[in-house]
Amino acid sequence: MNMLTNQETMEERKTPAGFTVRVHRATMTYEVITRKGTEIPRNAKNNSTIIVVPRIIFLGSSFNLSHFRLADLTYVNSRSGKLQVPYQYEGSSDIKIISVPTGSDSDVLPIIPYQYNSLKEIVHAAEQGLEFQNIIVDESSPKNEMINLKIRFPTVNILILRKKV
Fold it and tell me: CA-to-CA distance for 66 and 89, rounded, in angstroms?
């Protein structure tokens, strides 16, 4: 029998600003340790110090997310309480950043990125047990698809990206 020790299921990362981000891989939750102790993020439920690692879905084939290992834990920069999530449009070499709200003051935080091409794929993933907090869509997505997203997932934060000309 292969038993994991507590250290194998937990991963710690020191950030450039001096925070320690401790990820509990078994539950995919994290906590941030500051010089003053464990941080209680501004949007924490019940003042909890344990936060679910944000799962961020990119909806549409227009995104090039080759810089991520999809469906796997990765770390992104965070500034002013917002995750700085990098992305590219297919066929473009420009790396863009979308800011996703978080309640932490840490300068680096974990996320798990996903990419789906349709609402149907997201619904199927949710039926299989995937829980997610954010969906990033391109402005070219059909309006009725965005309305269906909000109806099906009312608590999810939906961010619409606009291509700048």
Answer: 11
Q: Tokens 């800011």 correspond to what residue? A: 99
- Length of the chain equals 165
- Of 17, 45, 112, the residue nearest 32 (C-alpha): 17
> Which residue intervals of the chain are DSSP H helices?
6-9, 119-127, 143-152
Q: Tell me the whole-structure pTM to 2 decimals.
A: 0.90
- Do the Cβ atoms of 60 and 137 come closer than 8 Å? yes
Buried b (16+ CB within 10 A) or exposed e, 43-58: eeeeeebebebbbbbb
pLDDT band at 6 (very low <50, low <70, confident <90, very high): low
